[in-house]
Amino acid sequence: WWRSIEPAPKDPILGVTEAFLMDQSPNKVNVGVGAYRDDNGKPVVLDCVREAERRIAGNQNMEYLPIGGSIKMVEESLKLAYGENSEFIKDKRIAAVQALSGTGACRLFAAFQQRFHPDSQIYIPNPTWANHHNIWRDAGLPIRIYQYYHPESRGLDFAALMDDIKNAPNGSFFLLHACAHNPTGVDPTEEQWREISSQFKVKGHFAFFDMAYQGFASGNPERDAKAVRIFLEDGHLIGLAQSYAKNMGLYGQRVGCLSVVCEDEKQAIAVKSRLQQLARPMYSNPPVHGALIVSTVLGDTQLKKLWLQEVKVMADRIIGMRSELREKLEKLGSRLSWKHITNQIGMFCYSGMSPEQVDRLTKEFHIYMTRNGRISMAGLNTGNVGYVAEAIHEVTKS
Ligand code: LMR
Questions:
Q1: How far apart are CA 78 and CA 81, in angstroms?
Q2: Distance 379 CA to ligand 1 centre (A)
Q3: Ligand 1 pocket check for 13: Cβ under 6 Å
Q4: What separation in Å is there between the alpha carbon of 79 and the centre of ligand 1?
Q5: pLDDT at residue 327 in the model
């Protein structure tokens, strides 16, 4: 049956973790996967999550959720993304379902796009999170690239981005990273978002936002939702993927939300029913536990306040690591510019290192990262940042 099957290539991100786990060196460092670690390099369970789990334990049954997931979790997610007083929520114009974290939200949307716009394609930024390619490919939709990153300045190539938006056929689907672009850490400014939004209006494009890092970029979820809010103000009917992996540390719980803004309530009901129709044969209904944690934390004033503090602590630790890494490289006498380490935001630094330099870091220094030169800043801490800086200096100096 399976004789002709060759092994699949390793995943460019999760494959790095596999290799890291096999390495026996005491000096090994994992700055591959985007997963938060504390200053001792340990995964963190937030206090708000521990408290929510304490309240949930033994008090909840484990029945199936509806196909669309926990209504309470979805409601809280919409308030977080669209704003407490959003007119769209009041007018019941948002079709939304619980999703299997950000990946599941993107995948379900891609399936929805494919079903109702089978001849459409998706524009994704160059570069983007590697899994975006897989998701839309497996949904059976052609992928187009739009320019995003400018390697020389290690910043945004705004002119090229705008050109690609203008040159795409009217009414195209675009994937946008709402904040903390993965892998580059480069986001448009507020002014640039406004220009992007108005150009989308001119062209009649559809914006699908992947918001995997709300709160993680700036420490403030309201600020990180700015791009989404600008598009809403401008009257776009957007799609949105939300994830609680990073901002609530619920990685393995696979909890998130997919929402689609509709013209009116009637349309929202129809769209939601179609999302559910797609979800049922894929996974039937989403898991309970993560949704209970999210709805318990966001639905309780005190716990939500604690969460906001804890998100900020995580974001600030990463911001601190950016300064330290840059400072250490400069002190080592690197002749390269490392300003981009502190200019970029979110979980990642797109270092500009070549795949060969990354290979050297791994082979000679046991430092594990993706071959595109992306450093997960959350993997750095006061104990290893000096070692990593020295290693980076060593492989980049000639
Ligand atoms: C990452 O980009 O490292 C994370 O989003 C984890 C993943 O699933 O790839």
A1: 5
A2: 13
A3: yes
A4: 25
A5: 97
Give the pair of three-digit tokens for residue 21: 């786990």
CA 82 to chain centre: 17
Q: Is the CB of 165 under 6 A from ligand 1?
A: no
**DSSP secondary-structure letter at 6?**
P
Strand partners, 349: 375
33 touches ligand 1 (CB under 6 Å): yes
Interatomic CA distance for residues 325 and 386, integer angstroms: 7
What CATH number did the domain enclosing 38 receive? 3.90.1150.10
pLDDT, tens digit (0-9, with 9 covering 90-100), for 65-100: 999 999 999 999 999 999 999 999 999 999 999 999
Is the C-beta atom of 379 inside 6 A of ligand 1? no
- Domain contains 310: no
Q: Which listed residue (246, 307, 328, 338) is catalytic?
A: 246
**DSSP state, 91?**
T
CATH number for the domain spanning 114: value is 3.40.640.10
Which of 13, 14, 101, 134 gets mutated to test ligand 1 (max ligand atoms within 8 A of its CB)?
13
Share of the chain above pLDDT 90, in %: 97
- Find the helix or strand (DSSP H, E) in which 242 lies: strand 239-243
Domain that holds residue 381: 14-44+316-396
Let me know if 246 is a catalytic residue: yes
pLDDT in tens, 12-45: 999 999 999 999 999 999 999 999 999 999 999 9
Helix (H) or strand (E) holding 126: strand 122-126
* Tokens 């408290």, residue located: 51
pLDDT at 59: 85
